[in-house]
Design a protein that fits this description.
The structure holds two protein chains of two kinds. By secondary structure, chain A is mostly helical. Helix content of chain A is 34%, strand content 4%. Chain A is flat and about 50 Å long. Chain A starts with 5 loop residues before the first helix and ends in a 13-residue tail after the last strand. The radius of gyration of chain B is 21 Å and the shape is globular. Chain B starts with 7 loop residues before the first helix and ends in a 6-residue tail after the last helix. Classes of the chains: A mainly alpha, B alpha/beta. At the A-B interface, α1 and α2 of A face α9, α10, α11, α12 and α13 of B.
């Protein structure tokens, strides 16, 4: 085992916004341990290697691209040119 | 298959010489599809009527001397994660089964601008996650050389459609070998271009720092045509770029990394590699053996941590609200929309990025990725090109690895270093192997520094089908 417990997988599923059955938890725990175990001998971070990620941004230029109406066609519910989303306020602890 | 008569180049010549018409080519493709694709499963959707109509228009343009480009009238297939405007584009996922692409990927727009005819969209591992084609939520694609075997993935359908002669040119995407591995398994040529050489606009993101669209053809020459038609800077993709094109040379120094010929390589593939090396030496190239790139041995570990981390981030967009499968809330939509490999990667990535683990996994993987890049850059100071196998084995049986994700991941052992470094690589069929009575193709991989595609093409033509049988 590489420290990936069923509880940890359950937590990852929750963070990933996925429902997993107990049977799936057992299977994923086993498989993720295999994969993470394989990766556990990567060299330690020694700060000698500069792997800093640099974000290079282009200047913003406004151009006509996709027609908003075409984008909205794939949405479940649309009103006045907006996507209707489930309420997330005043619905504590409920799935949004 | 090495069937010159079916090559893109020969089709282009025949169109130019008036020996055939676009309508005839499209009909020929559909005849092959109707005859073979029921068994192979390379296509998810085909558009015969639209294709024939477009072919008629192409023939009319040609008659007036107004062709749009070299590919005018040529039937082309695309992987189902490349957006095709006003058509279902599903990435072979239940999540996007009803998703209509609202715009064209830049690659599709370029192809259409040049008169190419999109005849259909190809099967793939769901969201390009897989090495066998079996992770498609719709159906597995079969290897045209042996229907009991996988074609390789994730561009399973794109490659199988070309290998079976159903279309002369197809496009796939390659994040860790997804064009090259199936090309090797199916005996065709596939290119993973330099990162940024081909626009990713409209390609459904899997792991954005690694994804790249590339062409698949019967011959190196065909892949050159497909690459030139689609490469170029695109303002819609901030990572697209051009670099200084690395020139071809009369003779090359060709490095063989020892990590590419170690344990786990099928002796038949080793033999084919030795044949190619002998041929290249006879042509006057210099072979540099035992080139050392130690981090290649760590590439799979680095790769799957980085891919999973990028997947967990990229896939947060699938909420079942703005697009995609809608069920009872976000969690239910995601749970029902994604297949097991997608869920596995999202959870692994969530783990690799989570507080308390990110230093140990994600950051370590990023640092190791940089080390691998540095090692390869150093190797390219002393050799011009690297040669090795594309895959450690021949096409394996359907179902053989589907229960063991790590075993499946290890199929990509020779291909993932290329994506991590962002350099180009070309898989070229060189000969045949045998497994349990099946005759199966063997592919080798040429890897060069950034923007050295022309070198890979040059050498690729010299080793194409070079192995003694």
């Amino acid at each position: 085992m590489n420290g990936i417990t069923e509880d940890l997988v359950r937590r990852m599923a929750e963070l990933s916004r996925l429902d997993v059955t107990d049977e799936e938890i057992a299977r994923y725990t086993h498989q993720l341990n295999d994969i993470v175990g394989y990766a556990s001998d990567l060299p330690a971070l020694d700060n000698a290697t500069d792997a800093t990620m640099v974000m290079v941004g282009d200047e913003d230029v406004v151009v006509a691209t996709v027609n908003p109406a075409d984008l909205l066609r794939n949405a479940v519910a649309v009103e006045d040119g907006y996507v209707k989303v489930p309420a997330i306020i005043n619905k504590e602890n409920e799935e949004s | 298959m090495n069937n010159e008569s079916k090559s893109l180049h020969s089709f282009i010549q025949d169109l130019k010489g008036g020996k055939t018409t676009s309508v005839a080519l499209v009909e020929q493709c559909f005849e092959a599809i109707e005859q073979k694709d029921g068994a192979i499963g390379a296509f998810l959707r085909t558009y015969k009527e639209d294709a024939l109509e477009a072919a008629k228009q192409s023939d009319a343009r040609r008659a007036e001397g107004k062709t749009l480009g070299e590919l005018d009238g040529i039937p082309v297939a695309i992987k189902d994660n490349i957006s095709y405007s006003n058509h279902i584009t599903s990435a072979a996922s239940a999540m996007l089964a009803d998703y209509t692409a609202p715009y064209n990927a830049t690659v599709v727009a370029k192809l259409k601008d040049q008169g190419a005819i999109i005849i259909g969209q190809c099967n793939m591992d769901e969201f390009a996650m897989g090495s066998s084609g079996e992770n498609s939520a719709i159906k597995p694609t079969k290897n045209p050389h042996d229907l009991t075997r996988v074609p390789g993935g994730s561009s399973s359908g794109s490659v199988a459609s070309v290998a079976a002669g159903m279309v002369p040119l197809a496009f796939g995407s390659d994040t860790g070998g997804s064009i090259r591995l199936p090309s090797a398994f199916c005996g065709v040529v596939g290119l993973k271009p330099t990162y940024g050489a081909v626009s990713r606009y409209g390609l459904m993101a899997m792991a954005s720092s690694l994804d790249q669209i590339g062409p698949i053809g019967q011959t190196v020459e065909d892949v050159v045509i497909g690459f030139r038609a689609t490469a170029g800077v695109d303002a819609k993709d901030a990572t697209s770029q051009t670099g200084e094109i690395v020139p071809t040379l009369p003779k090359y120094r060709i490095g063989i990394p020892k990590q590419f010929v170690g344990e786990g390589l099928d002796p038949q593939i080793r033999h084919a590699l030795d044949d190619a090396i002998a041929k290249l030496e006879a042509e006057g190239h210099t072979i540099v053996r035992d080139v050392d790139v130690p981090m290649i041995d760590r590439a799979i570990a680095i790769y799957y941590l980085i891919v999973a981390a990028e997947v967990s981030s990229n896939f947060a967009r699938y909420d079942g609200i703005r697009f995609g499968l809608h069920r009872d809330g976000v969690v239910d939509s995601r749970t029902k929309g994604f297949g097991p490999e997608v869920k596995r990667r999202i959870m692994l990535g969530t783990f690799a990025l989570s507080a308390g683990y990110a230093d140990a996994y994600y950051k370590r993987a990023q640092a190791a990725r940089q080390e691998l890049k540095d090692e390869l850059a150093k190797v390219f100071e002393s050799v011009d090109v690297i040669l090795g196998p594309t895959a450690p084995e021949l096409a394996f049986k359907l179902g053989e690895k589907s229960d063991d994700p790590l075993k499946m991941y290890l199929t990509d052992v020779y291909t993932v270093p290329v994506n991590l470094a962002g350099v180009p690589a070309l898989s070229v069929p060189v000969g045949w192997g045998e497994d349990e009575g099946s005759r199966l193709p063997i592919g080798l991989q040429l890897i060069g520094p950034h923007w050295s595609e022309n070198r890979l093409f040059d050498l690729g033509k010299q080793i194409e089908w070079s192995s003694n049988e």
